[in-house]
Amino acid sequence: MRVPVLAWILAAACTTAPVEAPAQTVHLPDDWSDLDPVAFEAWLDGELPLGRPTELSEESLSALATSLAAHPQSALRSAIVLGRSETDAALQVLAERLEQRVPHPDRNADAGDVTAAFALFKGYQRSPGPRSRLLGLLEALAVPGSPHPDLEVRVECAGGALAGGRESVVPFLLQVIRIGTWDGQQQVTDFTASATTAWARDRAARALADYCGVPSDYRADGSIPDRQAHADRLEQLWRSSRGTPRPAGAPSPTP
Q1: How confident is the model at residue 193, as a pLDDT?
Q2: What's 129's DSSP letter?
Q3: CA distance 190 to 168
Q4: Exposure of 236 by Cβ count < 10 A (0-12 exposed, 13-18 middle, 19+ buried)?
Q5: Which of 98, 154, 161, 237 falls between 20 and 30 A from 148, CA-CA?
């Protein structure tokens, strides 16, 4: 899975100001899923300006919900549009999609759900109190029990949950960072690592480094000793800087 840079720019640029009342209702153009990238971005900037909640019509919400389960390109655009809307109704569509816990056997098929997870956290940031349930959902999709079956989506959910202070996801993130290391070969996990985990490992390392307040210098293509040492340093930083024991019942990252 690789989320295009454009997707992150569009979905990540939400501000953290209090949620305002939507100023207008927007209808999707008939060709929204077929617009070339430049035209699509122009439509977003014109109809769904950053930092301002914009209501989407009921017909548009329904079409976007359906497209989240369609071709990866349409799913990705749907998640971007819903994230840019920043309304409770749009975020609910994204939440319901992630709650389905859809597996993605194809490498590039999960970009829409990864973007949905990112957009949910940005929506939570805009209004942490009323939208605390979104943070709870991201945590539930990351921790053992009933996590999202796609590793990249699960990691993105965990990154958002941790940024919101939910440390129960840290053991899972450490397990991901340790994939392919000596300790990683011995750990017992509730997920199956594919042959292409560079993005997931890098995202997990950045999430934990950000939470500990240190720059992330993790290299997904680094040597096994370097990657193992990096994971150990992050775990030590988390424990020493937060002074928080591993949550009760959470699996050890290095059994």
Answers
A1: 87
A2: T
A3: 15
A4: exposed
A5: 237
Cα-Cα end-to-end distance for the chain: 28
What phi, psi does 3 have (nearest 5°)? -85, 125
How many of the other CB atoms lie within 10 Å of CB of 234?
25
Q: What is the pTM of this model?
A: 0.87
> 65-91 as b/e, with b when 16 or more CB fall inside 10 Å?
bebbeeebebbbbbbbbbbbbbbbebb
164-205 pLDDT, tens digit per residue, is 999 999 999 999 999 999 999 999 999 988 889 999 999 999
Instruction: Return the number of other C-beta atoms located less than 10 Å from residue 207's C-beta.
Output: 25
User: CA 44, CA 23: separation in Å to the nearest integer?
Assistant: 15
Contact 1, 111 (CB under 8 A): yes
More confident residue, 108 or 205: 205
Q: 222: closest CA among 212, 234, 211, 230?
A: 230
Tokens matching residue 38: 């430049």
Tell me the C-alpha distance between 194 and 215, whole Å.
27
Check: CB of residue 247 under 8 Å from CB of residue 168. yes
DSSP 130-166: TTHHHHHHHHHTTSTTS--SSHHHHHHHHHHHHHTT-
219, with CB counted inside 10 A (0-12, 13-18, 19+), is: middle
Cα 88 to chain center, whole Å?
A: 18
What is the C-alpha to C-alpha distance for residues 171 and 249, in angstroms, rounded to an integer?
A: 11
Helix H or strand E encompassing 35: none
Determine phi and psi for 245, rounding to 5 degrees. Answer: -70, 160
Query: CA 183, 189, 195, 201 torsion: positive or negative?
Result: negative
